[in-house]
Amino acid sequence: LVSTPIGNLGDIAPRARQALAHADLILCEDTRHTARLLAAIGVGVRTEPLHEYNEDARIAPVLAMLRAGRRIALVSDAGTPLVSDPGYRLVRAAIGEGLPVSAIPGPNAAVMALVLSGLPPQPFLFLGFPPPRPAARRAAFGTLRSAERAGLSATLIWHEAPHRLAETLADMAAAFGPRAAAGARELTKHFEEVRRGPLTDLAAHYGGHPGRVERTVLVVARE
Questions:
Q1: CA gap 33, 91 in Å, rounded
Q2: Residues 214, 161 contacting (CB under 8 angstroms)
Q3: Is the peptide bond before 162 cis (omega within 30 degrees of 0)?
Q4: CB-CB contact of 160 with 215 (8 Å)
Q5: What is the Cα–Cα distance from 93 to 60, expressed in whole angstroms?
Q6: How many CB atoms neighbour CB 208 within 10 A?
Q7: Of 13, 59, 77, 130, which alpha carbon lies 20 to 30 A from 188's?
Q8: What is the C-alpha separation between 21 and 104, in angstroms, rounded?
Q9: How many CB atoms lie within 10 A of CB 88?
Q10: Which string of DSSP letters, residue by residue, matches 145-182?
């Protein structure tokens, strides 16, 4: 499991470069995206897609390759594999068969946003992407509020797509109120931005400036 840069190619680790160069096959979410990374670091290993729609079908042939002694690297489009990305079912299957699984650490957008947010860094709860449908999303936020009333206390972290950001933040503001919050984008890139303030202010800002890139949204724990 090879972590890859979340923006700045200079962040690729020497061990990650070595693992990719010595792999027999690289599994990736988007072969075109990974091809650009491999070209930048001078690696010419064959790639094949592994994503949420084909992961189950790929497990058996990948396990067969591992049993035959082949070296397979798994990457996501950016960051640490499996964290809000495909690969969990494949890894579970490999572990279940006693096959060796190792990982090379590296960038993670959620953790980087957390340490830049100015919010309490621990404990935190990473929740991936909120449900895309409004009713399910509001229900999920309501469940978190119930969990907080029962004792949950953690900085909450989500990723969100640009086309849903405004409505998601409006739903968050309705559920959680004017808590301290942050929104991060383009981490490690030239236009890196972390906007901090009350959640209601962030909802108002991004309602008028949704942008064109994915954001990481963080909300402080209930006091």
A1: 22
A2: yes
A3: no
A4: yes
A5: 9
A6: 7
A7: 130
A8: 14
A9: 12
A10: HHHHHTT---EEEEEE-GGGHHHHHHHHHHHH-S-EEE
CA distances (Å), 87 to each of 34, 73, 176, 191, in order? Answer: 15, 11, 32, 30
Tokens of 27: 């599994």
Residue found by looking up tokens 């299957």 in the block? 93
100-122 pLDDT tens trace:
999 999 999 999 999 999 999 99
User: How many other CB atoms are found less than 10 A from the CB of residue 196?
Assistant: 16
Which two tokens mark 213?
């890139």
Return the C-alpha torsion angle 77, 162, 137, 118, nearest 10: 80
The pLDDT, as a whole number, for residue 210 is 76
Residue-wise pLDDT tens digits, 184-206: 999 999 999 999 999 999 999 99
Instruction: Decide the pairing of beta strands 155-160 and 215-219.
Output: antiparallel
At what angle are helices 165-176 and 134-149 packed, to 10 degrees? 30
- pLDDT number for residue 212: 87
